[in-house]
Amino acid sequence: MAHTLKIPAATELKFKKIGLIQPFDFVLHLPIRYEDETKIIKIAELEIGQTAQIEGEIIFAEISFRPRKSLICQLKDETGIIFLRFLNIYPSQEKQLGRGKKVRILGEVREGYYGLEMIHPKCHISNENIQLKQSLTPIYPTTAGLSQSTLRKYILVALKQVKLNDTLKESIKSQLKLEDFASSVETLHNPKPDENRSALLERSHPAWKRIKFDELLAQQLSMRKHYQKRQNKTAPVLLEMKLLTEKLLKILPFELTEAQRKVWKEIKNDLLKTHPMQRLLQGDVGSGKTIVAALAALQSIENSYQVALMAPTEILAEQHYIKLREWLKPLGISPVWLTGSLKKKEKNAAIEQIALGKTQLAIGTHALFQASVTFNKLGLIIVDEQHKFGVQQRLALREKGKDTDTQFEPHQLMMSATPIPRTLAMSYYADLDVSVIDQLPPGRTPVITKLINEKRRQEVTEKVRQACLKKQQAYWVCPLIDESETLQLQTAIETRAALENQLPELSIGLVHGKLDNAEKAKVMAEFKAGQIQLLVATTVIEVGVDVPNASLMVIEHAERMGLAQLHQLRGRVGRGAAESMCVLLFQQPLSQLARARLKVIYESTDGFEIAQQDMQLRGPGELLGARQSGVPMLRFADLNEDAALLEVAQKLADELLKNDPETATAHLQRWMANKPDFLNA
Ligand code: ADP
Ligand code: MG
Predict the structure, then answer these.
(1) What is the position in ligand 1's atom list of the atom closest to the CA of 291?
(2) Cβ burial, residue 623 (10 Å; 0-12/13-18/19+)
(3) Is the pLDDT of residue 1 over 50?
(4) 406-407-413 Cα angle (round to 5)
(5) Would you say 381 and 235 are in contact if contact means Cβ atoms under 8 Å apart?
(6) What element of type H or E holds 207?
């Protein structure tokens, strides 16, 4: 890199490790926090958890060897005493920290065994009066072996060297009340003594606002650009023939809800256009996305274009297959089934049907986009539970559908039962149009949720017995065991055995991820037919299983599960007319996060509300799932806190792309220069 300072090779490697390659990367390497060495706090005024600078005299110092070598001191000022503990101490430091020495210490205040303490604080000897610092000390994100002072040195060089011209015009800055870019960066690296410190620490300072805004704008620009680019591609026009769709609606045992009608209309209109649809269909578990997908599929089929429907698991794909086969049979359409686990012969037969255009609808897992599959004339791709697929996988499927003669790209409908909070949709999904089914079909009784300590599991098995005696059915979900699938399986088998003991009069089945598909399908079919009353399951049933007669679900170790997962699982009951219940068994002690999660799931059944809370508890990363691998993540802006800023950035992005593409390009260049860009493919 073109620094005026030569960087030693070893340091350069470390820089690279934390993404510091171009000089501009150093400019944007902003402090995660600041230490306040501008004032001295009295010991009596210290608060637990606070990072503070104190000063006083060492009145006690002793080396202790247990549990390992450390130096324990007591520091006294005119208001109180605090313990200091130093680990891995050098002999020279031992001397500096001897009894009677005056020192200045900076560290985090903790509640120790004998009172207040600081563990391995930063320290200065202060026999002569050291000046207090005039500005806050920035603390940068770093990596092992890279010191704050080294980082700071090169950041200061970069700040001098890089031309920090503003990508935003004066008129925009004054209109949006944004600070200069250059002065914002300067302030964040070297805050002057009179800056509002708490605003800097809480990232609400105008300098932070400018950086966050620029980041959000860059993200919006990049997402919207991809969106527009795809608008320029061509897709087959799929007219509304009203042949098959009308027929299906006539034979359905139910009427579409208002919400289903609304999203279907949005999709219908997209399919009529000459560019590929790129729409995300969101709807809570059980809101009835499948029928909307079926209607969209029929619109493609009516125009003699094939449809591919892809789901992330075999169970889910198979549910779709069974459902659609049943719905479409009267229309003379029989879908083809393709997954990795098919026997070679069946697989080849399916692939041939797809290639020759003998089938109009292919349903399956990611096997649908393996190399040996080619479509004859693909008009529409439907991806269920899209967040479980990476961006690249979806791109692969789109490439597959591309017609080499016409250059037509298929339309794309993504579906998700994990509701996406508005700000998340606005940022990470800004390259898609979004439709929401915001209403459940009528006749559902809301699921009652109970939180029960697992010590009372006896009562819970009794509930299961009662439900099954009333000819209802139940799920018993075994705990998630992250470390080991084998362990998870073992737990499931043991749980089943225990339940068979306690409930000898019930027929109990077991389904888990290691069953082969024929076995899995057999168990599911038996459960659906009511031959199995109680289904013991691992979390494989999380998505898509639809057995309306099941009205009770027990989830073991609910405290280990994420909110989205709990919500998904709970959505398996409450699908019929009977009053349903979901029992969340938990084991104490509960972590704070687990407690917060259980509270949310207990209090709300609204998927959007739950997702919003989830994002607040865990940040957006987890909710994004596989998608994040392909999308630039936000480093500075926070979707929970900066929603208003995001709104403004979105508006400006659209405006710039339309009226001022040079500014858009310049801004993107600055922020996205060396970021991976999968969406670009
Ligand atoms: P999801 O959105 O979770 O995929 P499904 O499409 O599986 O939901 O629908 C859940 C259940 O509701 C299915 O049994 C489906 O047949 C039924 N269903 C869908 N739409 C309606 C409706 N408008 N009225 C009544 N039942 C419906
Ligand atoms: Mg579904």
Answers:
(1) 6
(2) buried
(3) no
(4) 115
(5) no
(6) helix 206-231
Atom in ligand 1 nearest the alpha carbon of residue 255: 23
Residue that is written with structure tokens 């390259």 in the block: 431
Name the residue of 284, 290, 322 to mutate for ligand 1: max ligand atoms within 8 A of Cβ. 290
- Cα(204)–Cα(213) distance, integer angstroms: 12
Confidence band for 296, pLDDT divided at 50, 70 and 90: very high
CA atoms within 13 A on the CB side of 481: 15
Give me the phi and psi of 374, to 5 degrees please: -130, 140
Closest CA to 581 of 463, 455, 419: 463
For the chain, the first-to-last Cα distance in angstroms comes to 28
Residues contacting residue 196 through CB under 8 Å, at least 6 positions apart: 205
pTM of model > 0.85: no
Q: State how far the Cα of 318 lies from the Cα of 367, in Å rounded to an integer.
A: 13
| Residues in contact with ligand 1 (CB, 6 Å cut-off) | 254-257, 260, 283, 285-291, 417, 441, 546, 575
Residue 579 predicted with pLDDT over 70: yes
Q: Ligand 1, residue 290: give the atom nearest the CA.
A: 6
Q: Using the 8-state DSSP alphabet, how is residue 179 labeled?
A: -
Rounded CA separation 360/467 (Å): 42
The band of 482, judged by pLDDT with boundaries at 50, 70 and 90, is: low
Compute, in angstroms, the gap from residue 650 CA to the centroid of ligand 2.
31
Measuring from atom 13 of ligand 1, which residue has the nearest CA?
288
